[in-house]
Amino acid sequence: SPGLRVRHARALRRLLARHGPELALNVTQDFGRKADEVLATDVLPTADACQFLERNAWRVLKPTHLSGNSRPMWLFSSRETIHRRPHGVVGIIGTWNYPISLNTVQILQALVPGNAVLWKPSEVVPATSRGNKALFDEAGFPRDLLVILPPTPEAGAPLAEAADDPPAS
Questions:
Q1: Could you tell me which residues are beta bridge partners of residue 1?
Q2: How far apart are CA 163 and CA 166, in angstroms?
Q3: Which of 13, 154, 18, 153 is nearest to 96 (CA)?
Q4: Contact 159, 93 (CB under 8 A)
Q5: Could you tell me which of 121, 95, 92 has the C-alpha nearest to residue 107?
Q6: For residue 92, which of 56, 110, 148, 165 sits 20 to 30 Å off, Cα-Cα?
Q7: Are 23 and 100 in contact (CB under 8 A)?
């Protein structure tokens, strides 16, 4: 349920606060960025994104009724509602430059509405990717909803090409 997934996002934010220094050291180990810089530019923005979802997911995901001004006159008496539904599986090809925020936020934005994620982490940040995955597991997101592909350049091509496949009928 969306409420449960928002609780997982809250747990993830708290884990970011608790494990921020360790996560920053992972980035330092992977490619040498200073830990205090990582905390300020990668960990804190990720925690902020978690808090945004905690506060706003219910509003963003709830059904939206369209007003009469948004349709042609001959449909004036009809009522329309937009219902947001999960896509199913979202593929994410991870980045290395801000490996906590640019990966974790995208994954979180896919999981909270109810999607599963197939994530191909960057080969440049293996320790950080393992730390990111551990956060999602510890926050309580079901392990089978976040599947990690090998962090190799070869693993990204099939994922990128899968977007071109037509949906099953």
A1: none
A2: 8
A3: 153
A4: yes
A5: 92
A6: 56
A7: yes
pTM of the model: 0.84
- DSSP conformational letter for 152: S
Residue with the two structure tokens 């597991």: 137
Cα torsion angle, 138, 50, 38, 123, sign: positive
Strand partners, 90: 117
User: How far apart (Å, rounded) are the C-alpha atoms in residues 105 and 97?
Assistant: 14
Contact between 15 and 138 (Cβ < 8 Å):
yes
In this structure, which amino acid lies at residue 6?
V
Residue-wise pLDDT tens for the chain (169 aa)? 667 788 999 999 999 999 999 999 999 999 999 999 999 999 999 999 999 999 988 888 888 877 656 666 776 677 778 777 888 899 999 999 999 999 999 999 999 999 999 999 999 999 999 999 999 999 999 999 999 999 888 888 888 887 655 555 5
